[in-house]
Amino acid sequence: MTFFNKERKLILAVESSCDETSVAVIEDGSKILSNIVASQVKSHQRFGGVVPEVASRHHVEEMTVCIEEALVEAQIEPEELSGVAVTYGPGLVGALLIGISAAKAFAWAHDLPLIPVNHMAGHIYAAHFVEPLQFPLMALLVSGGHTELVYMKETGSFEIIGETRDDAAGEAYDKVGRVLGLTYPSGKEIDALAHLGQDTYHFPRAMIKEDNYDFSFSGLKSSFINTVHNAQQRDEELSVKDLAASFQASVIDVLVDKTIRACKEYPVKQLVMAGGVAANKGLRDRFSEEVAKELPGVTFIVPPLKLCGDNAAMIGAAAFVEAEKGHIADYHLNADPSLTFMSI
C-alpha cells in the first residue's frame, strides 16, 4: 500500500521556523489549495531583528487560527487529508517546537502520518509550483541565515558544493540596512535604492576568483560599515543610493559568478534560486540575463515573490517527496535548529 492511499493526495503543512506562522493545504505536491501566512514583521521591527522569545509567543497565538483558516480556505475536512507535514529544522528552536507540537497534536487527533521536512529543502521545492523540477539541477539558496549552492542529482538528493563561511547574504543586507537607518527587514528597500544609484564605492568581491564555490560576506559588510563610519567622522555626506547600489553590485557579482561557474562544471537541466533574498529584483534580473547568455539549454526558475519568504506551501511540496520515500516520523520528533542537508 502506498502512502497516498486516498482518492486525493492532500497534505496539511506547518511552518514556524522563524517569524512567520504558516499553514497550507497542498494537493499532489504542486497545487496550492490554501497558504495562510501570519507575519510578525511589525512586532520585530522596533528591535531591528527577530527576537526568539517574541516569535515563539506569536506562534502560540496564531497557530490554531492558521490551521483553521487553511482548512476552510482549501474547503477540506481533516478526514480527507493523507498526512501532516512540519518543519523540524533549521530555525529558532522555540519557534520550531511550537509548529512541531501543533502538527503532532493534529496528526494524533486525526490519525494521520507525520512527515518531517527540512526547511531549506522546502525553499527549493517552492520552485515546483512554477514548473516540474528536472534533474540534475543546481539550487542557490539565499536567505537571512543561509547561502548555499546545492547540487541535486535526483529528487530528494542534496549535495552542498558551496556555502558561506561567515555571514549569509540576507544577514549582510539586514546589517547594512541598519547602518543606513532603514526599517527591518531592509532587503527590499536596499534593492529599490540600488536601482536609483551607481556602483561608485566598488566594495570587495570576496572569494570571487578562488577555485571553490564558497561565499563570504563578512568582509563586504565590514568594508561598508567602515566607509560609512569614516565619512561620518569627517562630516562627509555619502549618497545612500550609491551605497546601496555598490553593496548590492558586490553581492550579485559574487552570487552570479560562482553559481554560473558551478552550473558549467556540473551537468544541470535547471537552475533554481530560492529563499528570501531570491525576491531581490536586481538578483533575479541579473541571473535571467546571465543564464540566457552563459547556460544554453538550462532553465532558470525562481518562485513567485509570495513563495520566496517562509511559507507552509513549500513545506507541503517537499513533504510529498519525503512521503514517497517513506520518511515518516513518530511522536518523538524533536526540533533540530542546526539541521543540515547532511543530516537528512
UniProtKB/TrEMBL annotation:
Binding site for Fe cation: 119, 123, 310
EC top class named in words: transferase
Cofactor needs: Fe(2+)
Cofactor note: Binds 1 Fe(2+) ion per subunit.
Annotated family: Belongs to the KAE1 / TsaD family.
Role played: Required for the formation of a threonylcarbamoyl group on adenosine at position 37 (t(6)A37) in tRNAs that read codons beginning with adenine. Is involved in the transfer of the threonylcarbamoyl moiety of threonylcarbamoyl-AMP (TC-AMP) to the N6 group of A37, together with TsaE and TsaB. TsaD likely plays a direct catalytic role in this reaction.
Protein name: tRNA N6-adenosine threonylcarbamoyltransferase
